[in-house]
Write a structure and sequence with these properties.
Strand content: 25-35%
Strand order of the largest sheet: 2-3-1-4
CATH class: Alpha Beta
Number of helices: 2
CATH architecture: 2-Layer Sandwich
Helix content: 10-25%
Number of strands: 4
Shape: elongated
CATH topology: Alpha-Beta Plaits
Length: 94
């Protein structure tokens, strides 16, 4: 059990581009929770703890089958929109 069990912590998404999918499928689970593995495009989408992000990225890049590690900026994208623009649907109705 990890020190984070039972505690809701902030997580960040990572995309890990790999050359060997089988090795990635076996070993990625110890670095974070694997969300998706693409066999066709050779990448792993996973979530890691945000407070250990830099450390985990360095560890992943040292693996021989890892080509590139990219972090997800999904948490930083604005998802609340304002509707200052008037609704134009009434102009296009029949």
């Amino acid at each position: 059990m990890s020190q984070y069990s039972g505690i809701l912590t902030e997580r960040t998404g990572l995309i890990v581009w790999v050359s060997d999918i089988k090795a990635a499928a076996r070993h990625m689970e110890k670095y974070g929770s694997v969300h998706f593995i693409s066999k066709r495009l050779h990448y792993v989408a996973m979530y890691v703890y945000a407070d250990r992000l830099e450390e985990t990225m360095k560890q992943l890049q040292r693996l021989p089958y890892v080509k590139k590690v990219e972090r997800s900026y999904r948490n930083e994208i604005k998802t609340e929109y304002s509707s200052n623009i008037p609704d134009k649907t009434r102009f296009y109705t029949l």
